[in-house]
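Action item from last meeting closed. Structure (187 res):
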């Protein structure tokens, strides 16, 4: 999924839930792209130094590669007929590689969501989070799980207020992802 407006590039979705899910996940991905784009280069591999965090706390590089690799797993298990991006190596991944990988895995997740929630003809009828987890019927819970997983990993290093406040400007994020009016409006 490109990091700019994607109007006209989203998969064709025939239900309002499907269209909305695609836009929500697109806005989520835009947040990831903005965070990595504005992150201080020194923060990419730095480990947080606070005594309150466990010693195995992940670097930002490890967090974003984990998010991408989790998406790859969801697509591979849930929609194996869709393109499954190559996984990223947390030890060697650069911010540019992470942005490209996340864009690619977001595009696959968007196709998966479009099929699952947008009258995809039944090719995606269950969501498999992991090999050990029981499959779920597709539904809004699938989207919520995917978003919750990513949101729980974000954070750590301070960013400029313009960037952090921009993450909460959903109207702008949605428009950057192809919506004409923003959340709650079917364009």
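Sequence:
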């Amino acid at each position: 999924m490109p990091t700019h407006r994607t109007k006209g590039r989203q998969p064709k979705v025939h239900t309002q839930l499907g269209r909305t899910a695609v836009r929500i996940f697109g806005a989520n991905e835009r947040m990831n792209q903005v965070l990595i784009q504005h992150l201080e280069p020194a923060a990419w591999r730095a480990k947080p130094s606070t005594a309150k965090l466990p010693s195995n706390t992940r670097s930002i590089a490890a967090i974003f590669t984990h998010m991408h690799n989790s998406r790859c797993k969801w697509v591979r298990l849930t929609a194996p007929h869709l393109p499954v991006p190559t996984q990223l190596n947390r030890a060697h991944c650069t911010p540019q590689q992470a942005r490209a990988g996340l864009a690619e895995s977001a595009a696959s997740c968007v196709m998966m969501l479009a099929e699952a929630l947008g009258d995809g003809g039944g090719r995606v009828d269950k969501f498999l989070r992991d090999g050990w987890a029981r499959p779920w019927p597709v539904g809004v819970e699938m989207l919520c799980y995917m978003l919750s997983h990513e949101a729980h990993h974000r954070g750590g290093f301070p960013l400029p207020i313009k960037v952090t406040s921009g993450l909460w400007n959903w109207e702008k994020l949605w428009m950057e992802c192809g919506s004409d009016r923003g959340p709650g409006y079917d364009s």
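Note appended to the action item: The first strand starts at residue 126 and ends at 127.
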